[in-house]
Amino acid sequence: MKCSEAVTIVNQLGLHARAATKLAQLCQQFTAKIELVQEDKTADASSVLALLMLASSKGKTLQVCTEGDDAEQALSAVVDLISNGFDET
Questions:
Q1: What kind and span of H or E run contains 81?
Q2: 84 confidence band (pLDDT: 50, 70, 90)
Q3: Structural domain of residue 35, as residue ranges?
Q4: 62 vs 45, 66, 81, CA distance in Å?
Q5: 72 CB-near residues (< 8 Å, 6+ apart)
Q6: N or C terminus: which one in the chain shows less Cβ crowding within 10 Å?
Q7: 10-33 pLDDT, tens digit each
Q8: H/E/C letters for each residue in 43-60?
Q9: Cα separation of 89 and 68, whole Å?
């Protein structure tokens, strides 16, 4: 199963190291493949380094793409975390 949804970075610091670590740890709990796409860049969401390479700042829109057995749950959890400002706001 493939799932996809757009979400906007809302926290002040964007996808910085602490937020990327929190997101990667969340993604590692799922068996689904989870990728974030920003413009022409794609990152494996379970890799902190890959997430940081996106250089996502506040206001940027990311496409969250999930594929696998628990894709819907993974998509929902990732979108919630990003929408809630990585629980920082």
A1: helix 71-83
A2: very high
A3: 2-87
A4: 11, 13, 13
A5: 1, 3, 66
A6: C
A7: 999 999 999 999 999 999 999 999
A8: EECCCHHHHHHCCCCCCC
A9: 31
Cα angle, residue 64 at apex, residues 82 and 20 outer, rounded to 5°? 45
Give the number of other CB atoms < 10 A from CB of residue 68: 15
Q: What whole-number distance in Å separates Cα of residue 17 and Cα of residue 66?
A: 22
pLDDT level of residue 3 (50, 70, 90 thresholds): confident
> Which residues carry out catalysis?
16
Give the CATH number for residue 72: 3.30.1340.10
Query: Residue 61: is its pLDDT beyond 60?
Result: yes
